[in-house]
Amino acid sequence: MARQDGELDPLWQDLDWAIGQMLIMGWDGTEVTPPIINLIENHHLGSIILTAKNLKSAEQTAALVQELQTIAHQAGHPHPLLIAVDQENGGVNSLFDEDYICQFPSAMGIAATGSPELAYNVAKATATEISAVGVNLILGPVLDVLTNARHQPLGVRTTGDDPQEASQYCIATINGYKDAGIATCGKHFPSYGNLDFLGSSLDMPIITQTLEELSLSALVPFRNAVAAGRLDAMFIGGCGIQNAGMKVTHACLSDQVVDDLLRNDLGFKGVAISECLEMQSLIQEYGVKGGTVMAVEAGNDLILLCRAHDVQLEAISGLKLGIENGIISKKRIYTSLRRVLKLKNTCTSWEKALNPPGLSLLSKIHPSHFALSQKAYDQSITVVRDKDSLLPLSENLLQGEELLLLTPLVKPLPASAATKSILEKGNGKLASLHEKWVHYERGTIMSGEGVFRELGKSLARIRNGKLLHTSYTANGLRPVHENLINRASAIIIVTADANRNMYQNGFTKHVATMCHMLRGTGQKKSLIVVAVSSPYDFAMERLIGTYVCTFDFTETAMASLVRALYGEFVPQGSMPGTMRKSKKTTKTRQQWLVENYERSRDEHGLNELLRTLARSSTPSLPYLSTTATSFELHDSNFEESHFVVRNSSTNMLYGFVATYFLKGVGIIGAIFVDPSKRNVSVGRSLHRRAMRALLQKPGINKVQLGLAYPGIFPGVSVDESGSIRSWFDNVGWDTQFPKRLANMIIEDLGSWAAPEGLLQSLQRANISFDLIRSMDNSESVLALVAAHSGPEIVELYRSALQDQHCGVVRAKAALDSVLGIVIICNKASHLSAYIPSLHAHGNQEVGGIIAPIVPATAQSSLVLQGLVFMGVRQNKSQKSAKSVLSWVPGETHELFSAMGFEVQQTFDEVVNSPEHWLHLS
């Protein structure tokens, strides 16, 4: 329960203190300055954003953060400062220290590995490192879907163009951050993945898609991340929205975006953080004071102002003026205050804030993190095409032949030794990520020298031979390039966002044409193009026969590239999103060996598979509270047969399917595939084996997809994606007429109250209730279940009646006829092993109200509500914190919503005739 205003610490009654908690600010410089001290001490600033311009090394960062926290502590702050950074990896890292902080691939590079588990491990490692220096909020992950890949500045900061794949990797990343103790912030809501840039740099980039279009693509990862329940904050973008249903100049200033779309439609309850209000377009249109008030009115809880002290003071003044003018209410301030304080309580404490472990911890974990970094980069390297089998170069380039490396002039990435060298020499000033967006750059400015010098040296070292290396620019193919191309037997061209820097595109195609002509004269001219940022540069350009992608050009990425080019490992990465899928559909489907599940051999592997799935899934797929034993019912009325696809050398499970046969019904009760082994027919092989086994059962009269007992896989998840349903359609299921079911929940049972008038209605209808806890008096119960539900529900009730921690509530009419029944239980019951919804995060007690059965009558709605009401009362009496209502028929949702339940998960159980599968029998 949120506390009332009067229950807050009295300190917060001073609105100056409360206002300070609604601001997140930064400054220029690597040392604490008088302006930032003034903000913390005199304006009670509660959150700091640190960027690359503040951070020199891990040691300096830890000392800087500790100093900031000490200032806040001595100034009487009740809670530590939120300290936020952008640490996305790839090209966006605020903190770089090659001795202590490991570099990992970009989000798209991680997606290219095909491993959500690797995404989790990298995220956890990244968060552990920045937590060690005192950071407690990471501005990530990027949840945007790159629906327009060619001209978008986000590029490899996203996972790609597939919303479901983006969801999977982003949730794995969120889980990694959270498990390392860092608060998370998804960005950039509602989407930076398909922006139109019109006019001058003062104009906002805009979203032109309709809300319906956004809902089907761009909003999917945001919705799934919110549903996963571990996203602490959401970063609201500074873009405009122009479509038939919405005219918004700045998303972060619009209540249609923040309060309506994010909070009401997506159900987000965390902290909303605005884009930096130092945007020139915003200042010109509204001024900082007006913009700050609008941002709070829109529903933002933290207002970001990056660097300018005079602007920051103006924003504070604007907030106070907004309160004085009655535009912003005291209630509105305290709503944001509570959200921010709740966030702080999840990720920091004074003991933690004042004593960051710093270098002692970083030194200890660096070797393992460095190995993880190399593994991640190696697995991300992607050979999109190699038509002429030019790779590895060690087999196709003789020692005496010359290799030419052609590289563009690019700015060094923030997380690189090249940038560090420039800054240390005083030859350049590094803009923060927010400054780059606020002062929008149409394309990357090609000004840096020497970024790829080490790449050339590494290539020369690994081949122990001559290397020719020169740069190319917007001046095109020059005589020096032509001379070198004529000399070389193999040419490597590096491109970096050639779609946005078109001179690279033209230069590369010119060289490709020249090599083609020279090969026609009998000369050896092997051409390899390497895209070191966006993989879309030449993804569809067949003129480029050998095309390799690295997804960023950090030193670590280039080291992996060199080893891949020379055959030290075989690159296994793949193109992200839809391009991966379209490529895989052209492959011949692999047939995997499917074996019977053996507990002694496979139990550990299945538990590992379930943990991997939990790290990359939303709660609608309840792997977190599931173990291998959850699939074994040990019920003599069930026939169970489970199957696996496994690596017989390592005992690692690639996939698992559980099947059950009960009274003529063959059931697939679970089917899982390791995320890194999807799209290679593991699932198809398992499904085919399972169906063949079921169809051979004598007396089978129907086949069912989804099972309520055990309820690990109650059906096709509606909350997940259309691609899951499509997969089942493609393997033969007719999913047109499913039985829709749901799990619903009361999150705070302590504050729940019965709907007004319900008890009186039950009394007027002469409906009474009793509770039975054994097989005595069970005949009427089991008869009702058998008449109105499937055989597995009969077994569920039979099991509940034999469990001392369960009971069955009966609704009865005046003449003792049974009107309906429902199971009441808790996680102490043996049923909880088979019902994941009875397990909550942490140690909270969860009460279960399971499988209500009420025959259709004029009173059935009232009977259903009465049964559930009695179940909730029973849960409360057993001190449960939450109450879960499981397997609710789709048409009855509204009845229970009116009682205070919220939908937790929705799924479709599908039943087909065995004749539908004659081709497999």
Tell me about this structure.
The chain has 921 residues and is α/β, with parallel strands linked by helices. It folds into four domains: 21-360, TIM Barrel; 382-410 and 446-570, Glycoside hydrolase family 3 C-terminal domain (Rossmann fold, 3-Layer(aba) Sandwich); 595-737, Aminopeptidase, CATH 3.40.630.30; 753-899, 3-Layer(aba) Sandwich (Aminopeptidase). The protein contains 30 helices and 32 strands. The strands form five sheets. Strands 20, 21, 22, 23, 24, 25, 26, 27, 28, 29, 30, 31 and 32 form a 13-stranded mixed β-sheet that branches. Helix 5 packs parallel to helix 6 (163-179). The radius of gyration is 30 Å and the shape is globular. This is Glycoside hydrolase family 3 N-terminal domain-containing protein.
Per CATH, the superfamily of the largest domain is Glycoside hydrolase, family 3, N-terminal domain
Number of strands: 32
Number of domains: 4
Average pLDDT: 88
Q: CA-to-CA gap between the ends?
A: 56 Å
Q: Return Rg in Å.
A: 30 Å
Structural class based on helices, strands and sheet pairing? alpha/beta
Helical percentage: 25-40%
* CATH C-level name of the largest domain: Alpha Beta
Largest beta-sheet details: 13 strands, mixed
Global outline: globular
Beta-strand fraction estimate: 15-25%
Give the helix tally.
Answer: 30
Low-confidence stretches: 1-6, 427-448, 584-588
The CATH architecture name of the largest domain reads: Alpha-Beta Barrel
Keywords: Glycoprotein, Glycosidase, Hydrolase
Protein name: Glycoside hydrolase family 3 N-terminal domain-containing protein
Pfam families: Glyco_hydro_3
Family: Belongs to the glycosyl hydrolase 3 family.
